[in-house]
User: What shape does this take?
Amino acid sequence: MADIFDMQDKMRIVQELVPGRQITLAHIIANPDPILYQKLGLDPSLDYSHSAIGILTVSPAETAVITADIALKSSGAELGFVDRFSGTLIITGRVAEVEASFNAISDYFKGTLGFTVCDVTKT
Assistant: This one.
């Protein structure tokens, strides 16, 4: 009988985070399929009419809180999800609202905080 604590049966996962001051992804999904809202944990009955989902990742991860604040204050976009541990932000709204939020975030992070900021992409 094999020992359940045998070292050969254990999997070791190493995850590295390279610290930086950067926005690494800023993507807008225009007119997403309703199932995407459900898979992201968003309520399609509330969010689908908004017609866009914006996804952003930032490092250090804690600054996701700042991105959420700027996103909400700069347009009519709504917060779908923010995670201060992974640096992920998801917002919903009309395409123009999500774009306005991402532009405001980009301007603040690049101009005020001195971050490296990627281009906003859209599908």
